[in-house]
Structure formats: C-alpha cells, structure tokens
Specification:
Elements (H helix, E strand, L loop, with lengths): L14 H23 L6 H28 L3 H22 L2 H14 L5 H16 L6 H31 L1 E4 L10 H7 E4 L2 E7 L2 H10 L3 H12 L5 H18 L5 H6 L7 H32 L11 H13 L3 H4 L5 H16 L1 E6 L9 E7 L2 E11 L9 E6 L2 E2 L5 E2 L2 E8 L12 H18 L21 H7 L5 H4 L14 H10 L4 H18 L6 H15 L15 H4 L9 H18 L5 H12 L7 H9 L6 H7 L3
Parallel strand pairs: 6-10
Antiparallel strand pairs: 1-3, 2-3, 4-5, 5-6, 7-10, 8-9
Helix pairs in contact: 1-2, 1-3, 2-3, 3-6, 4-5, 6-10, 8-13, 12-20, 16-17, 17-23, 20-21, 23-26, 24-25
C-alpha cells in the first residue's frame, strides 16, 4: 500500500510542467467521458465508477497547485493558479450541465436502485441533485449563462482572496517606544524586534500571530486602534468584488429557480430553509445576549478600575479581557505557551487518538514544500490507512488562518485496490526562532485539535466510492461536526496532561494550571457566541436578495444592533476580509459552525458522561460518524450513533450559558 501514495514534488520550478499535466488531464477526461457515453448498456460499474475515477485523477494533479498557492504564494503560483481556475471551473460546469450524463445517471439509478448498495445509491442521488442545481434542465441560453457565472464567480473569489493576502502582506506598524510594547511576552517581543537603520523598532503586521500579540498585550491604546483600523479596513478593493459576487450569486439562484442564493445554498445542507436557520440563530442570540451583556458590564467595570475613561471598544477587548482572565483564573497565553511546544502537543494529540480510537501515527521522510512541514502515516489495527501532512508555522506568502484540505480520498480503484487517503493540516502558529521552538497558545492547541477532527473525518473513511468518502458528500452544515467534537477535548485534564510539559525544564504542567484553563474555557463565552451569531446572521441575510455594497453595510449595521454587545466603530469594514463567505465555501452557510456545534456538543457529552475512554461509545462514533463519511445523510448517522435526535441545549451547556 505504501507505493500508492503520491509524492508532493510540485514547486515553483516545475509548476508550469504541472500546469500542462492538468490541462492534458482535462482533455483526457473530456474524451473519456465521450467514450463512456457511447456505452450501449450503461451500468454503475462500467459508467458511474469510471466517471468518479476520472475526477479523482484530475484532483490528484490540480490540488498540489492550489495548495501551493495557499501555503507558499508567489508570482508563479498566482499565475499558474489563475490560468487554471477558469479551465477547471468551465470543465466542472460543463459536466454539471451535460444532459446526456444526467440522463445516464437517472436511468442507471431507476434501473439498478434495488441492486445498488447504500454508498452507490448516495453517489447517484447526490449526482442527480447536483445536476439539477447546475441548471441541466434549463434552456440552452440560460445554461450557458449559468456556466459563465460559475467561471466569473471562481475568478472573483480568487481575486478576493488574493487582494486580502496582498493587503495583509503589505502592511506593518513600527513602534520605537519600548513603553508601548513593555507588556508583550518575551517570545512575542523577540519576534517583533527589528534593527532598522541602526535603530531598534518593534514591527507588527496583520498576520495573525503578530496582530493578535499587539492587540492582546499592546499598552498604547492609540497604537492598538491604529493596528485594528488597518486590520478591519484591509483590501478596500474587495468592496467592489463582493458586490459583484453577490449579484452573480443572486442571478444564478434565480436562473436555477430559487428565490435567492440562500435557498440555493441550503439545497445541499441539513437545514430546510433560510427562515429555519435565521430562527435558529436568533433563538441562540436571545438565550446568549443577556449573559453577553453581563460579561461586557463586568469587563467595563474592570477596565475603569485600571483607568479607562470610556467603555471598552472593539480594539480594547483582547487587551482588557486578557488582563481580567489573568486576574480571575491566573490564565494567560504567555504563562501557558512554554508548556505547549508544537511537537510535544502533536505527540500528545496522537497519543490521545491512540487511546480513543486505536490510531497510530508514524513519522515518515518524504518530499515537502517547506522544512517545517512534518508527514505521518496513520495505522489502525496494524493496517496503514492514510498519510497526513502537517504545516503549522506562520510565514510570509502563506494564507492566514487554519484549515484541513484533502488531496486524495479513500476509494477503490478500477483494479479493485483500496487507495489510501491523503490530507493536509495547515495553521499559522508562532514560528520557531533560532533559540525557541514553536510555542502554542491554548487557543492554538484547540485549533490543532479542530483541524485534526476534519482530517480524521477524511482519513479514516472506509467508504469505497470517492464521491461520498471522507468529507465528500457530507452536508456542509455537518462538516464541522467531527472537528468541533475533537476540539472539545483539548482542555480535558487527562488529555492536556499527556502533552503539556515545559519546553525548557521538562516539568509537567501543574494541576492548578490545568484546572484554571478548564475553568477559564467559558470565560466571555456568551460574547464569543454573539460574535459568531453576528457573522452567521449577516451571511444569511445578505444572501436573501440582491444587495449593493451600501445595502450590505446597512444589513451589517442592523445585525450588530440586534446581536452585538461591543459595537464596532463605523470604519470597521469586516466584510472586506470575510473570506469564509467571499473566497471559501461558506456562502449562506456560515451558520454551519453553530448548527454542527449542536451535534458536536451533544456527542462530546456522551463521551464525558460515560467516561472519556469508553470503548463502546468511541467505537460507535468511529464506525457511525467518522468511517461512514458522506455515504448517508448526517442526521441519520447521528441518530445511529446517539440513538436519538440531537439536543440543542447541549451547545448552551458546553458554552456555560444558562
């Protein structure tokens, strides 16, 4: 099986060669599909299976290019990715509108439904639904229109992301007064310190580790606001881009027979209607806001004791809440970071997954795109099941944030061989320096567990059909379920103590620090809840009609009025950098985080209430949720695991909201 893994050898030098391979594969796929359509007696085996495998081959070649564009962005990656994007989009749009294909899939489903297994049925059900959603039944002129919209949208979304990356890379704020940085932890100070023209300055950028460091520990309020203003007004050119994106999405939804894009988005999700989602979000807001207001009042009272004259503003929140958290729980990032050395945390996470799901991780030496990347093979019961690339440190040319991406999905090929899956986990944690390894904040540890949950969902799949294996075929509002489930264990004392050792002394983390972290987990949790609800409601509402950039701002203002506790300053143009919905897959789907969190909180308490390492509960979760991928509807899988419907109150219990 080892030989079935591809090697990651794509780099700036051979990118154009890889581009040629992708273009060649697109043409080969088109020719192969023509041949498939000529088969007289079409069956699942001779038609649907080869069709899936053609798209697997294309992904195998294209994924390394898009991945490199995100993790090692350069003019070459931008150029090649931008060249290929319209070609790939056009290819998939043409497939989605191919009436012969649609007819063939429908006929095979009607003829063979009784004989097909559950996985095969789900592949065909999803394909038939997606064909309808791509406009296959529309008149020729309208079909062409949908195709053009898809191509234009993919280009605009890429432009939105590139604008954001360029704006993030291009800004820095230099501070020459040590008084303004005196509260920064030693490691953050070291990272910021620069010698310029024989003078010592402290440089802060809009990249996550640097930005968060000053917002959390920067003593000078004016400098905090300056940095905050730069961060929340990044990429003004995205105002025009997002307006175009929204207009095209609305037009596409109308062409496909939907009232708005929100309805179109929900056609492939668990939620039944935009109204149901909006009600769900507003109910959570109603239950959370009173506690969020109490939390804000407490923070204001505390900040005034420290000499703040007016109320805590958006650019003060991280600074004062960090101080209050420190005072209440003796918890601070700099106190914990020495105990969270990146590699030790990883080993602890692997050890936890070994106890929970009997998984084993073996480090392997294979080609990578950057020296800080580590690669692991994953085994279960002595069987090699997948490969995982882990790239956790921030650097220039790397997109902000953290994510999991899949390269190869577990499936059976045309020769009957089981092909093991490959995934990437990417984050932007503080990089190692000459004298200090990469040290993680508690939140980073949570993030790592979260992305590992996504990776497991992809990697431990036992499904043989690629289109419904791993996270493929999983409804978007259930995709976050395994990731949020796993992140909940990051602060469990028995898990934490397996990896939290001081990187210099090797001493284990003291019990009182573990207890404090667990107690502090829900510090300001209602404020965090309403902030996420603000994003989710805004996302759903701007996709309910065709709105201009000005109307988008008005909707955002109304949502903030309704659910926010700290009102951001008027200049805050958060929408310009909301890449989840304008450059990612979360359009009219950002609510999915909260929707899936209900499932994950409920599942988490089934473990906690029955003993974390309960083999029966763990095996059921592994088999019913993780290994089944997208082969059945998520609600059905949840009920198989839990024996009942999910309980919304589990989310409030998890967040410590009464």
């Amino acid at each position: 099986m080892e030989a079935l893994f591809p090697e990651f050898t794509v780099n700036d030098q051979n990118l154009h060669r890889q581009e040629e391979l992708v273009l060649k594969q697109v043409e080969e796929n088109k020719n192969s599909i023509k041949k498939l359509l000529q088969i007289k007696e079409k069956t699942y085996e001779n038609f649907v299976k080869p069709y899936q495998l053609l798209n697997v081959k294309l992904g195998l070649l294209f994924t390394p290019i898009s991945h490199l564009n995100y993790v090692k962005n350069s003019q070459t990656t931008q150029q090649v990715y931008s060249n290929l994007l319209p070609v790939i989009t056009e290819y998939y749009t043409e497939l989605g509108q191919n009436r012969e294909l649609y007819r063939a899939f429908r006929e095979i489903y009607e003829r063979e439904e009784e004989r097909l297994n559950q996985e095969q049925k789900k592949v065909l059900q999803d394909l038939i639904r997606d064909f309808k959603l791509s406009g296959v039944s529309l008149p020729e002129e309208e079909r062409q229109k949908v195709k053009q919209i898809n191509i234009k949208l993919s280009q605009l979304q890429n432009q939105f992301a590139q604008n954001l990356l360029d704006a993030t890379d291009s800004y820095h704020m230099d501070i020459d007064d040590f008084g303004d940085v005196r509260e920064l932890p030693e490691e953050e100070l070291k990272s910021a310190k620069k010698e310029i023209d024989g003078k010592t300055v402290y440089r802060f950028t809009l990249h996550q580790p640097s930005y968060i460091a000053y917002m959390t520990y920067g003593t000078n309020r004016e400098k905090r606001e300056e940095l905050y203003r730069a961060y929340t007004t990044r990429a003004p050119e995205n105002e025009k881009v997002l307006e175009e994106i929204l207009a095209l999405r609305h037009e596409k939804a109308n062409l496909l027979g939907f009232k708005n894009y929100a309805e179109l988005s929900l056609a492939t999700k668990m939620a039944q209607s935009p109204e149901q989602v909006i009600d769900f979000l507003r109910e959570l807001a109603r239950k959370s806001k009173p506690q969020a207001e109490r939390e804000y009042a407490e923070l204001n009272e505390y900040a005034k004791k420290l000499g703040l004259k007016d109320d805590v503003q958006a650019y003060d929140f991280a600074y004062y809440s960090e101080k209050l958290k420190k005072e209440k729980f003796q918890v601070s990032d700099e106190k914990y970071k020495p105990y969270f050395e990146k590699n030790r945390v990883l080993e602890g996470l692997f050890g936890f997954l070994n106890r929970l799901f009997k998984l084993e991780f073996e480090k392997v030496e294979v080609p990578v795109w950057h020296p800080s990347v580590a690669v692991y093979h994953i085994y279960r019961k002595n069987r090699l099941i997948g490969r995982l690339y882990i790239d956790l440190e921030a650097r220039k040319g790397k997109r902000d944030g953290a994510w999991m991406d899949e390269w190869i999905t577990h499936h059976q090929d045309e020769k009957g061989r089981l092909i093991p899956p490959v995934a990437f986990i990417v984050a932007n944690f503080s990089p190692a320096t000459q004298d200090t390894p990469s040290l993680l904040r508690p939140y980073d540890v949570e993030t790592l567990f979260h992305e590992m949950g996504h990776a497991l969902h992809h990697l431990v799949s036992e499904v043989k059909e690629p289109f419904v294996s791993g996270i493929s075929g999983v409804e978007w509002d259930a995709v976050e379920f395994p990731s949020q489930f796993l992140e909940n264990f990051a602060y469990e004392p028995q898990v934490l103590k397996s990896f939290a050792f001081h990187y210099k002394t090797g001493q284990p983390i003291p019990d009182e620090m573990v207890a404090a972290l667990k107690n502090a987990k829900n510090f300001m949790s209602a404020m965090a809840m309403v902030r996420q609800l603000e994003f989710a409601l805004f996302d759903m509402l701007i996709h309910m009609d065709r709105y201009t950039a000005e109307e988008v701002q008005q909707i955002l203002n109304r949502v903030r009025e309704e659910v926010s506790v700290i009102k951001p300053p008027p200049y805050n143009k958060f929408q310009w950098s909301f890449s989840h919905i304008f450059a990612g897959g979360y359009a009219a789907g950002y609510y999915s985080y909260k929707w899936a969190e209900v499932l994950s909180a409920d599942a988490y308490f089934m473990f906690v209430d029955n003993g974390i390492y309960n083999d029966d509960v763990a095996e059921s979760f592994y088999e019913e949720i993780l290994a089944k991928g997208g082969s059945k509807p998520a609600m059905e899988l949840f009920k198989n695991f839990a024996g009942r419907e999910p309980d919304v109150d589990a989310l409030l219990r998890l967040s410590g909201i009464n």
